[in-house]
Amino acid sequence: MSPKTAESGGKAGGRGPALTPSRITTSALAILALVLVFENTRAIRIRLLVPEVTMPLWTALLATGVIGALCGAYSSRRRRD
């Protein structure tokens, strides 16, 4: 056995377990998001302040999720500084 694998308990690279609670939670949320997208494919009308647009519901949900994720990332980044 090489010194690198002997130090890490026999694991190459010394990485932790493949399935951690955060990875399981993230995977479950990603699967739920995909189910939500595939279940909501019909076109809907959305009023954006003044114009009214017709788009698939999954597009509106995805745009809302991306905007929410960006706002969350921005606010958590500002809090750490």
Order of helices and strands: HHEEH
What is the CA-atom radius of gyration, in angstroms?
21 Å
The overall average pLDDT, rounded, is 80
Percent range for helical residues?
55-70%
Count of distinct strands: 2
Low-confidence parts = none
How do the helices and strands line up, and which of them pair or pack?
Layout: H1 3-7, H2 21-39, E1 43-47, E2 52-56, H3 57-80
Compact overview of the structure:
By secondary structure, the protein is α+β, with helices and mostly antiparallel strands. It has helices at 3-7, 21-39, 57-80; strands at 43-47, 52-56.
Index terms:
single chain, 81 residues, alpha+beta, two-stranded antiparallel sheet, 2 strands, 59% helix, flat
Summarize the structure in words.
- Helices cover 59% and strands 12% of the residues.
- By secondary structure, it is of the alpha+beta class.
- It has one domain (18-80).
- It is flat.
